[in-house]
Description:
Layout: E1 12-18, H1 28-39, E2 43-50, H2 54-65, E3 72-76, H3 87-91, E4 97-98, H4 100-114, E5 124-128, E6 131-136, H5 140-154, H6 165-168
Family: Belongs to the MoaB/Mog family.
Domain MoaB/Mog: 14-158
Pathway: Cofactor biosynthesis; molybdopterin biosynthesis
Amino acid sequence: MSKPKKSFIPLGIAILTVSNKRKGADDTTGFYLSNACTEAGHRVVHHEVLPHNKYQIRERVSALIVNAEVSVIVLNGGTGFASDNQTIPGIRPLLDSEITGFGELFRQLSFVDIGPASMQSQALAGLANRTLICALPGSGGAAKLAWEHLLRPQLDARQGPCNFVPHLLNERCDDGASSCKN
């Protein structure tokens, strides 16, 4: 007996750009991520630019992880070693579990493009309240690399042998309905 074919499940995604320089109109990396998510069939339910302030980042991410429309939060910017980068300290305390392989794979892929400078990326992913939270560097190239090689495949329920989608949906959502978080 063959397994039933899996279906694509559109997820609600929030895009947060962390920058003291970018404003809404020139958020090129945020717009790239929004467009890429939409083109992949997902819904962008929130898109915002935040300053490098770990408490503002934490407050916004906290609000989004309890929002039933949001299954994934993608932050871009503030993940390097500059003194004002606050993304990682802002989100790490919120995580129920960290997905260490995400940062490891991102740095490995990034090494091919930028060499040893890739070790300075603190790219991070984890789960909080059945919400996937991913923190990427703010450069467009880094966001594209993470989206194409890591996020897009793992946000597709058809991806095998496993993907993140079952971790983001409530057990009651066996029909693939969106927004089924606890």
